[in-house]
Amino acid sequence: MIRRRELLLGWMLADQARRVPGSILVHEHILVDFIGADQIRPGRYDPDEVFRIARPKLEELRPFGCRRLLECTPQFLGRDPRLLARLADATGIEIWTNTGIYGAARHRYVPAFAREETAEQLARRWIEEVRRGVEGVRPRFIKTGVSGAPLDEIDKKLIRAAGLTSLETGLTIASHTDGGGPAALEQLDLLGTLGVAPGKFVWVHAQNEKDHAWHERLARSGAWVEFDGIRERSLDWHLTCVRRMAAAGLLDKVLVSQDAGWYHVGEPGGGTFRSYSYIYTHFVPALPDDWATRLLVANPRQAFGE
Question: Residue 52: is its pLDDT beyond 70?
């Protein structure tokens, strides 16, 4: 069955898609549980069912040259490093997990202890996860998020904690940013007061900001500007964003991904699991070859490491 699927995908590649050897998808999901930090608990889903559903979606990536997928589901939103390790072993696709806490969505996914502890205390938790691993898996980046600009005190604390963790571990911070360019700049400035280099900050969901001047401003400051959520209805806008950055000489600060997947905990059969291959079949073919390599190979390695 797997061989038949790969032969079919090989035909697709020859027909329209583009293979990008060593490519990395920097923002995808395998499982997400939106119930909230105060209600999330073990046993809300069957890991075997998730494995069965997610495995073929990951296997579809192999003929396209995908090497690695960064799974951006943070703790208290469904992070499951053991499941990710199992899927990585079965599919041959590296799957990176994260540390950190997600402050977007009006802090629905911030647990009680994180509201009470200081940034320094939270950072110690996350640093320990990096050092010791989570269920035998070492987090390879920091995932957080903010609810908008101006940042409130919880958002500021999470960003400070992420900055302190980055300084200690060297890991890059990927921040889901509601509030567009102003919120991204406020985070970058706050991290700068801690001594965190701009290149350690990724502005996640930058495509939601419609003013290209903000994209250019953050990139010129040294931050990474991530246009994710690539799909059919957004294809033209994502291509426009990337082309504008290239015209400004800033393609080397751009990341792209799909925010695709995923198994939706609480929905029958996990709901709709969106394929990870659209970026190869529709987005990449619309770009020059060297752009595809820059966006999916060189930039992810520079942003997040090997």
Answer: yes
Closest CA to 82 of 109, 110, 48, 122: 48
- Phi-psi label, residue 10: left if phi above 0, alpha if psi -120 to 50, beta otherwise: alpha
Spatial separation of the C-alpha atoms in residues 268 and 278, rounded to whole Å: 24
Structure tokens at 189: 């400035």
pTM, two decimals, is: 0.94
CA distance 17 to 285: 6
Length of the chain: 306
Q: Specify the pairing of strand 66-71 against strand 94-96.
A: parallel
Tens of pLDDT, residues 227-237: 999 999 999 99
Tell the CATH superfamily of the 2-12+24-304 domain: Metal-dependent hydrolases (3.20.20.140)
3-state secondary structure 43-101: CCCCHHHHHHHHHHHHHCCHHHCEEEEEECCCCCCCCCHHHHHHHHHHHCCEEECEECC
Q: What is the DSSP letter of 296?
A: I
Give CA–CA dist 180/269, Å, rounded.
34
